[in-house]
Amino acid sequence: MSEQTKNEATVTPDLGFVKEVIASGGEDLKKCYQCSTCTVVCSVTPDDKPFPRKEMLYAQWGMKDKLISNPDIWLCHQCSDCTAYCPRGAKPGEVLGAVRQMAIQHYSAPSFLAKMVADPKYLLVLLAVPVIIFLVLLHVQGFLTGEIPRNEMGQISFSKMFYPTYYIDPVFISAALFAVISFVVGVKKYWADMARNYPLPAGSDTTSSLVETLKEIISHQNFKKCGVTKERSTAHMLVFFSFVGLAITTTLAVFHLYILKQPSPYPLYYPLKIIGNISAIGLIIGITLVTNNRLKNAAKAGKGSYYDWLFIVVIYVIAVTGILAQLTRIADIAPVAYFMYFLHLVFIFFLFAYAPFSKMAHMVYRTTAMVFARQAKRQ
Amino acid sequence: MEKKLALYICTGCGIGDSLNVEKISNIAKNAQKVPVVKSHFALCAKEGLEVIKGDIANEGVNTIIVAACSPRVKYEEFSFPGCIVERVPVRELAIQLIEKPEDQQLAAEDYIKMGVIKAQKGDLPEPYIIETVKNILVIGGGIAGMTAALHCAELGYDVFLVEKEPQLGGFVNKLYKQIPTTLPYTEPLIVDTTIQETIKAVEAHPKIKVYKSSKVEKTEGQPGAFDVTISTNGTQEVVKIGTIILAAGWRPYDATKLEHLGYGRFKDVVTSIEFEEIAKKGSGKILRPSDGRPAKRVAFIQCAGSRDPNHLPYCSAMCCASSLKQTKYVRQDPDACAMVFYKDIRTPGRTEYYYKEAQNDPGVMLTKADVTGVSDVGNGNMYVEMENSLLGEKVKVEADLVVLATGVVPATLDDPIINLQYRQGLGLPDLELYNGFADSNFICFQYETRRTGIYAAGCVRQPMNMAEAQEDAAGAALKAIQCAEHVAQGIAVHPRAWDKTYPDPFMQKCTSCKRCTEECPFGAIDEDEKGTPYFKPNRCRRCATCMGACPERIISFKDYHVDMIGTMLKNVSVPSEDDDPRLIVLVCENDAYPALDAAAKAGIKIDKAVRFVQLRCLGSTNLVWIADALSKGIDGMLLMGCKYGENYQCHFAKGSELANYRLGKVQETLSRLQLESERVQMVQLAIDEYEKVPKLILDFVERVKEIGPNPFKGF
User: Fold this and answer.
1) What pLDDT, in 10s, does the model give residues B319-364?
2) Nearest-neighbour CA in chain A from B375: distance (Å)
3) Domains annotated on chain A, with CATH
4) How far apart, in whole angstroms, are the C-alpha atoms of residue A92 and residue A101?
5) Do B391 and A11 touch (CB under 8 A)?
6) Which of A2, A61, A63 faces B385 most closely, judged by CB atoms?
7) Which residues of A touch B337 (CB under 8 A)?
8) I need a surface site. Which of A203, A296, B480, B640 has the fewest CB within 10 A?
9) What is the pLDDT of residues B537-555, one digit of tens each?
10) What pLDDT, in 10s, does the model give residues B444-495?
């Protein structure tokens, strides 16, 4: 009879959770027989408590808590070396991807939205929300009759589409605020769960960990450690920095509109247009590379789930509609231009409002996990 | 018989280039009086053989000495029925192993001289033929026994099958389902057993007589003429048997010794076999013994009392695959989980594919763990407690039914079973070396035991699964048939499966010291009421250990006896110079001599001082040879034989060990001769260690040179 020591944990296997992981993209999960080749091959795994072997075991036993409140699943950058080398074809990279998706669903609030974003059945419903909002706004402004708004100089002016901007800004600001609040709620829960399982050393500093982590992210050094999918470094960098560029563009636009009181359209030589266009082109190239890499490596690294591809498609649509809106505005094809701009706004809303529930959330969760891991000295 | 000797010297394979054949011929003709001496450049070719055959037909030659290559090659060419044939391996021992031509010549002369003496002293065998039967007794009516019985019956032999239970089938009868027998393994991964068809086939076969609820009371006699007493519920019947297949099977390890794992403390902790019975009784539904409710969380603890020095130290090979099969029973209920806790998963051979398929089920969970105990949850369930687990350091998991995968214990651990009325004992000897399994370490021949005519198959000799047991049974059946056929013609079995000689003691000089009786590795010698040993030649393997043991030297074989080897040793040339030693190396024919052949072929050279003499087994070394050789001026003797000890290689089980033991007694002989005991040594050599031969020889030569030359030199 063994004595009950305080380190003796009770493990309760959860068959339902195992089936969920299998259904979310980890379909070959049960082929793993714990040989540890994946862990040996992984180049970003920490030296103590390495992954993904233990995650495969936890997933096989349905140990949801150990999996989800665990920074390790976000330290993984899905380079898929593990999937390529697994001798049984258990695809640990895909399993971890599925677990990350389930972690996002678990922490983001409200949870019904999380379920809807992950399920292809609800795609049209989710798209309908911004479509209906914008149609209502257009109707209120009287634009649904087919009248084409133009500014004083007779140009196509997108800023005239929702004018004054207090029609459109509140929508986006609310969406953004909602996203931010949802993220904060989720991250707080996640951090608390992690700290419960891996206590932080006393006197450790979150700020300096955050600074170091941001440096690591910007340099994309983790991507360079991959074997099978090393071209992802370039692709992701393009997408990442293009997003940054577009964020700067939007800020400059707000500045022009509200501070300089100068509404759009702006001439192409304006700094904000230059930054914007370069970023747009970068984004298209980047997301195309991402798609190509995924298709090329599908045999070795797995084909990815609905969740992954939804994110990629949304980015594509945003980039394409943005560029087309600009081109058709310059070519003065008004109906197409405004339609493109409409789509552009719908998808941007989609991206930001549902960011806490979609793959976009990796931006926040991975950063949080990396900060935590650094602070807990687990890198 | 009236002998006409003929010596044929082959000059092919480089022999003719190195030797002065004329000188050798003269020695043979004049000193040894060999009437016919010829040489040929390709003796094994058609023309060479024609010369020999011509002499047999026209000159009446009937005793042939072939001075050519090793006796292990060209034996089909150099076989002449009705003639004695002695092979002298001058090519290997004189030419290939020795460097300088003058040394090669001297060595060749010695070897041919010894070969002629051997031919002069030997005789053609007259086989021991008594009235024999070719019936086969199969002990055990499980899957191994029944398969062996069917094979023997199909080949036309009468089979007596003895089973201790009231029904045939053994443990397979208790199984609910079995692992499928063909690849690929697909869901549901369990199929019905076919044991009932096998039982029907056995009971219906006209050549198989089945005794149920029966045991072997005693076994007397010898192979070909065993008298076996079978007792059935008290009544006895004696049957005449040729050979015996022991397929008495196993029992599960006693789980009452596994109290720390909960057996006995909880009704819901059961063994693998008990779990099969639960599944069979419930037609697939797994109901807990305590309250009859369906089990939803079943824990399988592997290596329960196995690979553990406190219980069974060995692995039982089939329990991992068996437990994986049982997880499939559990999973017939889609809400139930099966959790397997293992030290390692061992699924050898094709069962690796079974493991792959069985674990590809969300409800089958596996983890490595050292299970330390089973404790009470308090709600009718049990905690399985473990450490060093992949799930975490110290972990406990709740289960409502626990299955202990206990190991295989052979039937021969509890009971000798065959009940031999041999002087050396009722059962197979020295089974404590094998944890009770009817194993023998008999090199490369897994069915062999240390009792001639008795072959072991199935789990009684080694833990194995059903498919392996069926293959085993087929092998043992073939061996049993071979033995029955050989013994009917007076021929020996493995390892001298061509030999028609047998030990023939000159009983008038026997002092009943019983050394032969006790030392025989195969229990071939019993003793009568007066204590006089008597031989049962069909039990004999012809190793001649008895010949070596006998202090009166009364035991001999037609072509192998003490005087023969003694005379050969006394006629080896001894150089007169003090610093030119002469050493004799006695080599056994099973590992040591083949190592010499391999060394010769590899171009290895050895010291010229040695002369090799081949023996059947080092166990046949009679101490008088040492006295004979040393008194003629031989400076030292080395015995080279197979390894003995725990992982013995000796092809007669005990020969080299006995030789080593006897050397301890040679001290007395040597001190009477005023000689140093270090002049006689023994080394163990395996057949693959041929590169060690030069160093072994050289070390011995150096030792002897240090001691100094034999004072009897030149006497």
Assistant:
1) 999 999 999 999 999 999 999 999 999 999 889 999 999 999 999 9
2) 7
3) 12-107 (1.10.1060.10), 113-375 (1.20.950)
4) 14
5) yes
6) A2
7) 13, 15
8) A203
9) 999 999 999 999 999 999 9
10) 778 899 999 999 999 999 999 999 999 999 999 999 999 999 999 999 998 9
pLDDT tens, residue by residue, B3-25? 999 999 999 998 999 899 999 99
Residue of chain A whose alpha carbon sits nearest to that of B398: A12
A7, A12, A63 member nearest B398 (Cβ): A12
Containing H/E element for B228? Answer: strand B225-232
The predicted model gives A86-102 an average pLDDT of: 90
How far does A90 lie from chain B, in Å, by closest CA?
Answer: 10
Residues of A in contact with B367 (CB under 8 A): 57, 61
- Find the closest chain A residue to B336 by CA distance: A15
Contacts of A60 in chain B (CB under 8 A): 365-366
Q: Name the band, by pLDDT with cuts 50, 70 and 90, for residue A218.
A: confident
Residue by residue, what is the 3-state secondary structure of chain A? CCCCCCCCEEECCCHHHHHHHHHCCCCCHHHCCCCCHHHHHCCCCCCCCCCCHHHHHHHHHCCHHHHHCCCHHHHCCCCCHHHHHCCCCCCHHHHHHHHHHHHHHHHCCCHHHHHHHHCHHHHHHHHHHHHHHHHHHHHHHCHHHCCCCECCCCCECHHHCCCCHHHCHHHHHHHHHHHHHHHHHHHHHHHHHHHHHCCCCCCCCHHHHHHHHHHHHHHCCCHHHCCCCCCHHHHHHHHHHHHHHHHHHHHHHHHHHHHCCCCCCCCCCCHHHHHHHHHHHHHHHHHHHHHHHHHHCHHHHCCCCHHHHHHHHHHHHHHHHHHHHHHHHHCCCHHHHHHHHHHHHHHHHHHHHCCCCCHHHHHHHHHHHHHHHHHCCCC
Say if strands B208-211 and B159-162 run parallel, antiparallel, or are unpaired: parallel
- Integer Cα distance of B377 and B19 in angstroms: 89
Contact with chain B for residue A198, Cβ under 8 A: no
A contacts of B375 (beta carbons < 8 Å): 1-2
- pLDDT score of B600: 94
Contact B360 A9 (CB under 8 A): no
B494-501: long-range contacts, CB 8 A cutoff, minimum separation 24:
B494/B442, B494/B445, B494/B448, B494/B541, B495/B541, B495/B590, B495/B651, B495/B652, B496/B541, B496/B542, B496/B543, B496/B616, B499/B125, B499/B542, B500/B125, B500/B126, B500/B127, B501/B125, B501/B542, B501/B557, B501/B558, B501/B559, B501/B560
Q: What is the ipTM of this complex?
A: 0.83
Q: Report how far apart, in Å, the C-alpha atoms of A319 and of each of A128, A283, A343, A352, B171 are.
A: 20, 7, 11, 15, 71
Whole-angstrom distance, CA of residue A307 vs CA of residue A359 = 7
Q: Which residue in chain A is spatially nearest to B335 when comparing CA positions? A: A15
Beta strand B214-222 pairing with B225-232: antiparallel
For chain B, the residues whose C-beta falls within 8 A of a C-beta of chain A are 260, 297, 335, 337, 339, 345, 355-356, 359-368, 372-373, 375, 383, 385, 390-398
Residues of B in contact with A3 (CB under 8 A): none
Per-residue pLDDT reduced to its tens digit, A54-91:
899 999 999 998 888 888 888 888 888 889 899 999 99
CA distance B328 to chain A (A): 15
